[in-house]
Design goal:
The protein has 473 residues and is α/β, with parallel strands linked by helices. The protein is built from 16 helices and 18 strands. It folds into 2 domains: 254 residues, Rossmann fold; 209 residues, Glycogen Phosphorylase B (Rossmann fold), CATH 3.40.50.2000. It has a 10-stranded mixed beta sheet, with helices on both faces. Strands 15-14-13-16-17-18 form a 6-stranded parallel beta sheet, with helices on both faces. A two-stranded antiparallel sheet has the order 2-3. Strand 11 and strand 12 form a beta hairpin. The protein is globular. The structure holds 6-O-phosphono-alpha-D-glucopyranose.
Length: 473
């Protein structure tokens, strides 16, 4: 097999299967943030991407796509149930998001997680060239760094954690907490979204292993009497801001934004929510606040419309099925009580949309609502800010989303405080154009400057530093 200098390892390949058969023509680049982020790092390099092709039991040879090699990892339906829906999304996801839903600890899920992580590590080991850099992504693959180091000590290994890392008091619940920390410490550089996440990780390392940590550096015993230096630091991820600006300036997309307003019956104000249908996003809290505003008359149908895009996610996991039922019941009730023949209170769409349509929606929205109860970063916040080249629009942003660290000029809210959220939404609806402009300009400066290219360069600079230090030993 061809070997690469840069290997990305992620749960999913960066493509979706859209056509017939398994040939390269059957695949299209996935629209997600991770893919765009890494696309920039991989462009023009001899790079491979190891990941699951998105369907159970699909057995495929590596193939070329857009100049990179994609290396599929086969997952059986049992693997998917136990490793993906089970341990990744039924144990780690809720635990790391502050137990908003109860994590389920099941030994058979853990066993599957170990097995599947090993399969990813073994595949990466066969694809990486001598001395290559392997970049492991996210919580589904926390054991891969250590497994890979054991198989290939010559590699430099990076890991980026896209979701929050919890406080030790929560993390300590995990029956396999030590194994997870050891797995992650197999990396040379560990990237987190917020300083708080990197801090929580370091505290777990100190509590469980007593390894010294100082200024983002951890000295880990190397098994030969010496130590190996690991860097664990924040690298807040971002978007390709320029690409969003270009879309926002396209006449057809601007026209589409006007059309959306019209199709909604030209309400004075449009509120927008865009989320995966996930219990971490605070969609229920948002609906509660908006519903109460309709009851007490702070918002009126026809004057204000809430558009809620909830893209389908993890339908095999029970907590997601329950959430969908609950949200759809609530939306149905609110609309039943308040809709008129001409106007709807909430336009709810359980669908995903292409990027062009998303940008048109952002441009049509007077107020963007991000009410996550816990979120690693939330790139929708950054996308909304990037496209508002008109310096208009108001971002209502949860302080529990990573994006709040950079976007302090948003209307920051605690989504558990329904009264506070209602007051912030009211303030957003009434905000003068001058204040909108002042806040938006300050946020746009941040997003345009800290774009995804900078994120990639920052992480790679840390990797190069560690590599140079290794070479010097
Ligand atoms: C979050 C995670 C990603 C994940 C994505 C979609 O952003 O950090 O790792 O890929 O959600 O979830 P899914 O389970 O469909 O891959």
């Amino acid at each position: 097999m061809k070997r690469s200098e840069l290997v990305v390892v992620a749960n999913r390949l960066p493509v979706d299967h859209v056509g017939e058969g398994d040939g390269p023509d059957a695949w299209r680049r996935s629209p997600g943030g991770l893919v765009t982020a890494l696309e920039q790092v991989m462009a023009g390099r001899d790079a491979a991407w190891v990941g699951w092709p998105g369907k159970a039991d699909l057995m495929m040879e590596p193939f070329e796509f857009d100049g990179n090699t994609l290396v599929p990892v086969r997952l059986s339906s049992d693997n998917l149930e136990q490793y993906y829906e089970g341990f990744s999304n039924g144990t780690i996801w809720p635990l790391y998001h502050d137990v908003i839903a109860a994590p389920i600890y099941r030994r058979s899920w853990w066993d599957a997680y170990v097995r599947v992580n090993r399969r990813f590590a073994e595949t990466a080991a066969t694809v990486a060239a001598e001395g290559a850099f392997v970049w492991v992504q996210d919580y589904q693959l926390q054991l891969v760094p250590k497994m890979l180091r054991e198989l290939r000590p010559d590699l430099t290994i990076g890991y980026f954690h896209h979701i929050p890392f919890p406080a030790y008091g929560l993390f300590a619940q995990l029956p396999w907490r030590s194994e997870v920390i050891e797995g992650l410490l197999g990396a040379d550089v560990l990237g987190f979204q917020r300083p708080a996440d990197a801090g929580n990780f370091q505290r777990s390392v100190r509590r469980l292993f007593k390894y010294p940590t100082k200024a983002n550096r951890i000295d880990v015993p190397d098994g030969e009497g010496g130590t190996r230096r690991v860097l664990a630091a924040p690298f807040p991820i971002s978007i390709d801001a320029e690409a969003f600006v270009e879309l926002a300036e396209r006449p057809d997309i601007i026209a589409r934004a006007a059309e959306i307003r019209e199709q909604l019956g030209n309400p004075r104000k449009i509120l927008l929510g865009v989320d995966r249908l996930d219990y971490t996003k605070g969609i229920r809290h948002r609906l509660k606040a908006f519903g109460e505003m309709l009851v007490d008359g702070t918002a009126e149908v026809g004057d204000v419309t809430l558009v809620q895009i909830a893209s389908p996610s993890r339908p095999g996991v029970e907590a997601y099925q329950d959430l969908r039922d609950e949200i759809e019941l609530t939306v149905g009730r609110i609309n039943g009580d308040y809709d008129t023949m001409h106007h709807t209170a909430i336009r709810y769409l359980h669908q995903g949309f292409p990027r062009d349509e998303m940008v048109a929606l952002y441009l049509a929205a007077d107020v963007m609502l991000i009410t996550a109860l816990r979120d690693g970063m939330n790139l929708v916040a950054k996308e909304y800010v990037a496209v508002r080249t008109d310096q208009r629009g108001v971002l209502v942003l949860s302080e529990f989303a990573g994006a709040a660290d950079e976007l302090g000029s948003a209307l920051l809210i605690n989504p558990h405080d329904i009264g506070g959220m209602k007051a912030a939404i009211k303030k957003a609806i009434d905000m003068t154009p001058a204040e909108q402009g002042r806040r938006m300009r300050s946020m746009r400066r941040k997003v345009l400057h800290n774009d995804v290219e900078r994120w990639g360069q920052g992480f790679m600079a840390a990797v190069d530093e560690i590599r140079a230090a290794k070479g010097a030993n």
